[in-house]
């Protein structure tokens, strides 16, 4: 069974996903890495996801993201971290739900703001009013994330070991016993 982590940028999807995959000896797949690979194959350029988004703009970026999502079909028993905007497309939700257990990593706005702005202003935020812009996007996406049937972990309430323990328990609860 795949464990599919989603949530806002900065919620810990990649961080906790890598830790969990390492402790369980499972593959870790970050869809941002897949986007980077696909873009490099198509353009011959090696850019970050942020740079790709800036170069392509929103709609072409989401098309590339869809290609990355659909390339996941060959993965099993993996930990998969989704980009923050992946589930804005309802077709992605339906597709991914069939691939594994969805887990929403949620974090409060203050946590998200600090983590994101520590890395600079992202391309999806209005540079003239970054905090208000981020807050608006956060609220919009939060309602989408909360509407998805998934396990939820508030990463503000647990330390790193606590989040990993909950993720491990989700896998134990969702996977059939050996031989079944």
Structure description:
This protein is α/β, with parallel strands linked by helices. The chain has a single domain (2-174), classed as Rossmann fold, CATH 3.40.50. It contains 8 helices and 5 strands; from the N terminus they run E-H-E-H-H-H-E-H-E-H-H-E-H. It has helices spanning 13-24, 31-43, 49-56, 58-70, 90-97, 109-117, 130-147, 160-174, and strands at residues 2-6, 28-30, 79-81, 100-106, 151-154. Helix 1 (13-24) crosses helix 8 (160-174), helix 2 (31-43) packs across helix 4 (58-70) and helix 3 packs across helix 4 (58-70). The chain is globular, with a radius of gyration of 16 Å. The chain starts with a strand and ends in a 6-residue tail after the last helix. The mean pLDDT is 93.
Short description:
It contains eight helices and five strands. By secondary structure, it is α/β, with parallel strands linked by helices.
Shape: globular
Spatial gap, N to C terminus: 13 Å
Low-confidence segments, given as residue ranges, are: none
DSSP helix fraction: 40-55%
What is the residue-averaged pLDDT?
93
The structural domain count equals 1
User: Proportion of β residues?
Assistant: 5-15%
What is the radius of gyration?
16 Å
Give the SSE order as H and E letters.
EHEHHHEHEHHEH
What structural category characterises the helix and strand content? alpha/beta
Number of strands: 5
Topology overview:
Elements: E1 2-6, H1 13-24, E2 28-30, H2 31-43, H3 49-56, H4 58-70, E3 79-81, H5 90-97, E4 100-106, H6 109-117, H7 130-147, E5 151-154, H8 160-174
Helix pairs in contact: 1-8, 2-4, 3-4
């Amino acid at each position: 069974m795949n464990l599919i982590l989603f949530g806002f940028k900065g919620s810990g999807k990649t961080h906790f996903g890598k830790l969990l995959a390492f402790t369980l000896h499972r593959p870790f797949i970050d869809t941002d890495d897949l986007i980077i690979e696909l873009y490099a194959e198509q353009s011959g350029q090696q850019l970050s996801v942020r740079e790709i988004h800036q170069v392509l703009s929103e709609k072409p970026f989401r098309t590339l993201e869809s290609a990355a999502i659909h390339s996941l079909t060959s993965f099993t028993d993996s930990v998969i971290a989704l980009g923050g905007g992946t589930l804005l497309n309802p077709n992605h939700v339906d597709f991914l739900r069939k691939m594994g257990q969805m887990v929403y990593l949620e974090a409060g706005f203050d946590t998200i703001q600090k983590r994101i702005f520590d890395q600079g202003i992202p391309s999806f935020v209005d540079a003239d009013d970054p905090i208000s812009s981020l807050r608006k996007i956060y609220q919009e996406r939060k309602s989408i994330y909360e509407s998805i049937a998934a396990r939820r972990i508030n990463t503000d309430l647990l330390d790193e070991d606590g989040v990993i323990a909950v993720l491990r328990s989700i896998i134990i609860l969702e996977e059939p016993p050996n031989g079944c």
